[in-house]
């Protein structure tokens, strides 16, 4: 009996201890002062994944009105916290790599870019490699690239007939890769190896699927082809680099800049690093630029007011400079610049930017709410969503390049990170001037030499692509004519 009583007492004590422990922890957690962001309501376990797979933009459109500018989605074992709008995304863009890093979230690029570069190296080396990019894209280099961009556009469009119908998406993709080959990969690739190299890049491209983001090394055929193509590209560039070195030849391209680059300790880049950096440049700039050229065209060809504004600007510059098109002439094209910038506001090809948080931090929303974001969260911001916020942009879904005109400058009204198509802050795009010059060179040629009409319906957005672009063909009827001054 005594033993039974003792057992009973021990049992009661155990249960009581558990209940008290639970109560204490429940009481203590709120007292720890953490003001966590609201959480997206989903089905347990896979609910978050399902919401995300339905399309992150759909989820943002549904949740932002309910939860506000900061909220968390439970995605399997990860927590993704979204920041929408310049007030809360400022820390995202400004934070140091030790607080918010790219390395983990962009790891899926490693098999494509290759070993020893960008997200495969620690931040100090990566910073040095980004310095190589900065140097390769300085204004004196850009001036040389522009001459090549103009030549490529002239050459490409000279192959069009006097009139006809083309898929503008296909045409501009092709021209962009030809131009990128010339300016970035170099003369040898452009003149002798273009077909081989572009086929290999095609395999690299097709090896980057949504599934690759989660499982970059999954043994699937697309990944095998990617790895084979990556190896072959390394061989091709090793040959080009060594023959340039042997011949003591120097060219005006990004390849040459990377060959000549040196780390702070004096070490020159290796052939493998040069190859990896070139692949990274092409991945950063190829689809993003060609997609933006297509959207710019689709909007201009369906907005007579802006089409005549950009045409008048061309006439004015032709009066001033004749047929000369160089870096400085392109830099005078403010109306065309705004027209591209506005297409990019509505359709930023990189719809979601990510970081991994390594320390706790707090954010304050526009309406004064404060949230604490614990370390370990993935943090995300969306250019595609933020660029259409109605409290920043008047009629945000309208194509209106003049919103960026001097005096209006809606992007500046709400602060530094309102317009984020090119990211900003610590990791802002290093290729932005290059991209604008390339798109301007294409449209300058088209506006001066052709009458164009969009004959297919206005394009839809292909949300399923890794770099979000235009769905289907964009059929355009053209007629050759000179823009009369
Ligand atoms: C319309 C064309 C382009 C768009 C929309 C674009 C967009 C972006 C965005 C949003 C980021 C920031 C990513 C982040 O914060 O996670 C970025 C970074 C970068 N972009 Fe671009 N990009 C374009 C063209 C280019 C071109 C042509 C190049 C090079 C030739 C380039 C090179 C880079 C590099 C090197 C970075 C990394 C910067 C860093 O992390 O410090 N981009 N780009």
TrEMBL record:
Any coiled-coil regions, as ranges: none
Cofactor(s) needed, names only, are: heme
Q: Where does heme bind?
A: 429
Q: Which catalysed reactions does the entry list for this protein?
A: a 14alpha-methyl steroid + 3 reduced [NADPH--hemoprotein reductase] + 3 O2 = a Delta(14) steroid + formate + 3 oxidized [NADPH--hemoprotein reductase] + 4 H2O + 4 H(+)
- One short Pfam name that applies is p450
Enzyme Commission code(s) on record: 1.14.14.154
Query: Which InterPro entries does this UniProt record tie to the protein?
Result: CYP450_sterol_14alpha_dmase (IPR050529), Cyt_P450 (IPR001128), Cyt_P450_CS (IPR017972), Cyt_P450_E_grp-IV (IPR002403), Cyt_P450_sf (IPR036396)
Which CDD domains does the protein's record reference?
Answer: CYP51-like
Q: Which residues cross the membrane?
A: 7-29
For this chain, the family text in UniProt reads: Belongs to the cytochrome P450 family.
Q: Which UniProt keywords apply?
A: Heme, Iron, Lipid biosynthesis, Lipid metabolism, Membrane, Metal-binding, Methyltransferase, Monooxygenase, Oxidoreductase, Steroid biosynthesis, Steroid metabolism, Sterol biosynthesis, Sterol metabolism, Transferase, Transmembrane, Transmembrane helix
Report the protein name in the record. Answer: sterol 14alpha-demethylase
Give GO terms for biological process.
methylation; sterol biosynthetic process
